[in-house]
Reverse transcriptase domain-containing protein (Gossypium stocksii), 258 residues
Amino acid sequence: MALELTIFFFADDAFLFVRKKQSKVEEFVKMLTAFERMYGQSINLEKSMVYFSPTNPASQRANLSNLLKMRVVTNLDGYLGLPISIGKRKFATFKSILDRTTMKINSWSKKLLSYEGKEIFIKSILQFIPIYAFSVFFIPNYVLKELQSLIGRVWWKEKTRIESITKAARILYEGFGWNVKRGSRISIWSDKWGFEGLSGDLICLNRREVQEEKACDLLNKEKNGWNEKSVYEIYGDNMGDQIYKIPILHNSPNDSRI
């Protein structure tokens, strides 16, 4: 019966698969010897290696390795960045893809990319990393989800950063006061305005008793000064004196933040 031999040729290596029976291994050794005689080339046994299935007993491994005169290895090197054998721990096997993707993201994270630049980065670089593995193996779903999450964070990271800055700016903006000019943009109930940071908490009357809503409602008919009666009724004598000191410029620009 002929020797059952499976051969895979790569750029610099050849993988030969033989059944673990001693008779098959002996036939394999004879085949290698015949090859050397026929082509006048010697096989470098020092660089050759043999890998046994984990189910092989230790005694059988020792016997067969003596026949082959090759060193025994417990795992095989990868080829083109991919593992040759895949065990039960598939996540650990494909973790290198995630690591390479993370390294690329970290190396590019300091660069300010437009959305067009991010699209090119994702399609031309990040999605290219696992493309060979995808064509060879069935990648576990949890590895695909993790990869999708990494790439998704690249796309949405800047948006999240901008939203955070906008939110912080809103909070800071709310803490700013108003410089009174026309008074049309200033709410006497919710805004801080004037030199003392006046707010609705300083109003002496109940809200239902006050018709005025804006700072401009506290001005006189000519809009060039304060309505003394309204100011003192709403804020009392002490705060009324402070408000009366705030100058109003006739035909001045609109109110501004300070």
